[in-house]
Amino acid sequence: MRKLLTLLCLLAPAFFFAQYVQQAPAGGMVDWTNMVIREVGIGAPNPNLPLAAQRAGAIEAAKRVALRNLLERVKGVNVNSDVTIENAMVSSDVIRTSVEGTIRNFKVVGIHYKSDGSVEVEVEVPLTGFYDIFLPSEQSGSVGQVLPGSGTLPSVNTVYTGLIIDARGLGVRPALAPKILDEEGREVYGSGDIQREYALQYGIVGYEKDLNRARANERVKNNPLIIRAIGVKGANKTDVVISKRDADLIRAAAQNLNFLEQCKVMIVLD
Known about the structure:
Radius of gyration: 21 Å
Helix content: 25-40%
Strand content: 15-25%
Number of helices: 8
Number of strands: 13
Distance between the termini: 35 Å
Structural class: alpha/beta
Strand order of the largest sheet: 1-2-3-5-4
Largest sheet: 5 strands, antiparallel
């Protein structure tokens, strides 16, 4: 039993870091694999309150700090290759109000009591909650559409259950709505290719750090099509570029399958 516990302790960090998580030194994080964003806040008891009310007051104070920290964390999230959530909030009061409203609906996932009487509260919101703000209510375009000049598409007899883009080594960064482009800059996959209900539930793409974990992810298993990215585009470095041959393969497969519409796409990053 002791050996088993030791093994689990050794494997747990490797399991966590295989996920694509942007960790902050102060404790907050953006977990792009599980599609959640977390922050922490610390509140001190108010000595002017009755002793029985001090702990509850510290918890509420910690929630307010966590909410403020969560807003700052969310602002840095990429919406797409050109826009961050902060950019969008600055340009639109409607978006700013919507983002702040989404954050206020946070869920408390942990409360930790400190020896000095202060309280640390950990909160989270789902990243998918922001698709209600940034994803149009109606999508145009069709999955698997053969674009002019794409040439003869290869024959696809294999039934694929999803798509994995291996983008390691290219400096690609995660985003709510990234695109997959071919070498000519034409969109192979993006927000115009999905059914909105799936994006609201799962997000447009999932992210992982490990190819084997991506293959085993419920989103794409049991037989995903695996494509190697060849480049990255966009100011925020969120759009991946694949070869024309691979782009044609995806388009041909998507003509007969609906894995793109259902957001069954994973991107593996460093």
